[in-house]
Amino acid sequence: MRKKISLFVLFSLLSAFFITSHAASKEPLLIFCGAAFKRPMEDIVKLYRQKTGTEVNVNYGGVGTLFSQILLSKRGDVFVVPSPDIMERAKTKGVIIPDSISDIAYVAPCINTQKGNPKNIQGLKDLAKPGIKVGLANPEIVYIGAIAVEIIEKNLSAEEKNAIRKNVVTYVEDFNKLATLIVLKQVDAIIGFHFLEGWYPDKAGTIKLKTSEVARIGAGQTAVISYTGNRRGADEFILFLSSEEVKAIFRKNHYFGSPDEAFRWIGAKKPIGGEFTAIEGWLKK
User: Fold this and answer.
1) What DSSP designation does 228 have?
2) 150 lies in which domain range?
């Protein structure tokens, strides 16, 4: 009997040792995240820290900037981007591990105005009217900037395009700075994402684009960065992103949980991601 008790005690001590060792050896995670996902990601990271005790550090920015940072530093564990075409580029460059890619949320473009829409902007053509101050994201490094330029190029006349260019007062380097232009009333309108009014209900308004004007939607995706030294931790975090708790965080922040939700909002089924053909040299024209 004494022998059985001793073996049980020994097994319990060993189990406790391995559990404690695993908890103590948790390595911190470094995440590179597109700025359009900053608001929900802050809540997600906070919850993950509480549940696991893992330290998580996040670099936010325009995806082009983040892509360059990863390539130059050859570090990081998880990459979060707003569309599959960006992830495909990362895969081609060997930046991420292909079989780790996972969808997390969906976004649709729109026009965002100051709350109450004081300039009475009703659609895309109104951005070309004299006296309208427009803000855009840099199309060469920011996903919504590329979408905005594509929408302008494919739907307006040459005169209207030139008029909008004259109305653009700034090109910013990430989505959060784009949103700030509206919040601080520095511009009358931006081409942004559908969820912005949900973020700032007292500061921002939403003008839907015509269904025909929307060429695509974005799908937030995440993947393990190929330079990671913590594959297990990166996999665990990505698995957490598919949990019901995280889905609730995205819903709270007004993201679409499925492509069909985005299509219903737009009014038609659209491609998800895809190659851009209308942004090369746009800033130099």
Assistant:
1) -
2) 109-216
Q: What is the mean pLDDT of residues 139-154?
A: 92
Tell me the backbone φ, ψ of residue 74, rounded to 5 degrees. Answer: 50, 50
Name the pairing type of β-strands 189-193 and 134-137: parallel
Is the CB of residue 119 less than 8 Å from the CB of residue 163?
Answer: no
Of 244, 241, 195, 194, the closest CA to residue 222 belongs to 241
pTM of the model: 0.84
Tens-digit pLDDT profile for residues 162-210: 999 999 999 999 999 999 999 999 999 999 999 999 999 999 999 999 9
Q: Quick count: other Cβ atoms within 10 Å of Cβ 58?
A: 17
* Contact by Cβ (8 Å): 62, 147: no
Segment 199-258, tens digit of pLDDT: 999 999 999 999 999 999 999 999 999 999 999 999 999 999 999 999 999 999 999 999
Question: Alpha-carbon distance 225 to 122, whole Å?
Answer: 42
Contacts of 241 (CB under 8 A, 6+ apart): 44, 102, 104, 222
CB atoms under 10 Å from CB of 112, counted, come to 29
- Based on the fold, state whether residues 137 and 235 are members of the same structural domain: no
Q: What is the CATH number of the domain that holds 57?
A: 3.40.190.10
**Tokens 């491609």 label which residue?**
271
